[in-house]
Amino acid sequence: MSERTVGPAGADCDAFVVESTAIDRPPALPEIALHLASEVTPLWYATERWLAERGVPPPFWAFAWAGGQGLARYVIDRPEVVRGKRVLDFACGGGCVAIAAAIAGAARVRAVDIDPLAVAACRRNAALNGVRVDVSGEDLVGLPVEGVDVLLAGDIWYERPAADRFAAWLREVAASGVRVIVGDPGRAYVPTDLAVLAVLPVATSIDLEGCEEREVRVLEVGARAATPGSAASIAGR
């Protein structure tokens, strides 16, 4: 947990995460504390120029996106999905889904993200919550996934090129016997043939999402698509 990560422009990512965020708890996840951008932190007001001057890519890791919150909520409320299993949180960002899996009793939790700042944030957030998560910056897309029983991914369908790559790879992962579950709040490029496991509302920020609430669907890749109205609802949280 104490490993430090060097990111863009040689920055100490661990220090950047601490200095640019504040510790808060996402609306749907009162059990989990995270380093997040907020109205009192530099990242909340960051511009593209501010980020470019520091060699920082868009800080997706610094926000608790609705799809990740919904998937993490589902995992905590349905611990049998991960309990005793080896879990991979793909494109982990700040790691709320990985942390949820650890809280729910996963035997081992790995998290990967190609952004070194996300790697640093996920490590710090795991330590903050007192759970063990093995975090790395590997790009796994297109590669076989070994030693994993369940792959989780929150909010990954918002850019077409990436979504197309992810969909093809995740179908291959599911076909290999790994259970693949994703959280999506209605992004433009989510595949339409995924099975719906649950639907739940997640409070959001108007500044981030343009609305105060998103309906998040928890979806499974490679499973028979659910018939309309058959999805379990965990609304009310």
Please render the helix and strand layout as text.
Elements: H1 13-20, E1 22-24, E2 34-36, H2 48-53, H3 66-77, E3 86-90, H4 96-103, E4 108-112, H5 116-128, E5 134-136, E6 150-154, H6 160-175, E7 179-184, E8 195-203, H7 206-209, E9 213-221, E10 232-233
Parallel strand pairs: 3-4, 3-6, 4-5, 6-7, 8-10
Antiparallel strand pairs: 1-2, 7-9, 8-9
Number of domains: 1
Order of helices and strands: HEEHHEHEHEEHEEHEE
Structural class designation: alpha/beta
Number of strands: 10
Mean pLDDT: 88
End-to-end Cα distance: 31 Å
**DSSP summary: helix tally:** 7
Q: What is the C-alpha radius of gyration, as a whole number of Å?
A: 17 Å
**CATH hierarchy, class:** Alpha Beta
**CATH architecture descriptor:** 3-Layer(aba) Sandwich
Shape category: globular
Low-confidence blocks of residues: 226-237
Describe this structure in words.
It is a single chain. With 237 residues, this protein is α/β, with parallel strands linked by helices. It has one domain (65-233): Rossmann fold, CATH 3.40.50.150. It is 28% helix and 21% strand. It is built from seven helices and ten strands. An eight-stranded mixed sheet has the order 5-4-3-6-7-9-8-10. A two-stranded antiparallel ribbon has the order 1-2. Helix 5 links the parallel strand 4 (108-112) and strand 5 (134-136). Helix 1 packs across helix 5 and helix 3 runs parallel beside helix 4 (96-103). The chain is globular and about 45 Å long. It starts with 12 loop residues before the first helix and ends with a strand.
